Amino acid sequence: MTNEQDNADVLAASAPYTKLFLNVYDLWVVCLSNTVAWRCPAGTLLEHFNANVRLRHLEVGPGSGWLLAHADFPGPSADIVLLDLNPNSLEHTVRRLSDRHQVRTIEQNVLDPLGDVGGPFESIGINYVLHCLPGGWVAKSAALKNLANKLSDDGVLFGSTVLGPGVNRNPAGFALTELYNRIGAFHNRTDDHDGLVSALEASFTQVDSRIVGNVALFAASGRRLTSRAAST
Ligand SMILES: C[S@@+](CC[C@H](N)C(=O)[O-])C[C@H]1O[C@@H](n2cnc3c(N)ncnc32)[C@H](O)[C@@H]1O
């Protein structure tokens, strides 16, 4: 983090995830907002998750843990690390997963250099987090690069994000995006699809991304070796 304002913006974006909000997150975000406002149904997000998740997995910003709790992992028990700035999201998700999987938590800002988070991971998920992060694609790209360095050579980084410019928003999508940017929960006013693809291509040789409703669903592999060199 560079200064106090950045710090305040980062904290404001992760602050809404109180214990109370996490109890209604599945209804409000996973079911209603995804269907009505972002027009990317939860089932589509889950299919994308299932297509990419592996057994040694790092999930950034798990929120309520809905995706992880409903995922079809390619084996009975996965080794999962959860990274989130908000301890409520970590606790809520651990409660949903720990009877089936090995779960470890790390409380940190994903924009900061990653310490000993473990790895290398076969998969890293970052779902609905990029649109929360302050700064443009330069800052978000630096976070993606740090994550790329925690992947195994054949690992995949995948996720989803609500885009700002360049998508067709219905009134609900427009109103929610505006409101969330005003209160500091979202920072996606300049998050366009080309910028996302470029940010991923800075760290990966193979990038797939498609838009469903207001949401980009992406997967990137072939970690660039310069990416590892840049952060070590
Ligand atoms: C919108 S929720 C996403 C939940 C879930 N991944 C999903 O797809 O529904 C955003 C999550 O990212 C976390 N988060 C926001 N900013 C963060 C940051 N700078 N570093 C780490 N986690 C952050 C929040 O605490 C919250 O758990």
What does this 3D model show about the protein?
Helix 6 packs parallel to helix 8. The chain is an alpha/beta fold and 232 residues long. It has helices spanning 4-14, 19-37, 42-52, 66-70, 87-97, 137-148, 171-183, 193-201, 225-231, and strands at 56-60, 79-84, 102-107, 121-127, 151-162, 204-212, 215-223. The chain is globular and about 40 Å long. It has one domain (4-231): 3-Layer(aba) Sandwich (Rossmann fold). It binds S-adenosylmethionine.
Q: SSE order in H/E notation?
A: HHHEHEHEEHEHHEEH
What is the radius of gyration?
16 Å
Assign the CATH superfamily: Vaccinia Virus protein VP39
CATH topology: Rossmann fold
Sheet with most strands? 7 strands, mixed
In the CATH scheme, the class would be Alpha Beta
The total count of strands amounts to 7
Ligand inventory? S-adenosylmethionine
Helix/strand-derived category reads alpha/beta
Strand content: 15-25%
Low-confidence stretches: 227-232
Number of helices: 9
User: What is the count of distinct domains?
Assistant: 1
How widely separated are the two ends?
18 Å
Helix content: 40-55%
Which strands sit side by side, in order, in the main sheet? Answer: 3-2-1-4-5-7-6
Shape: globular
Which architecture name does CATH use? 3-Layer(aba) Sandwich
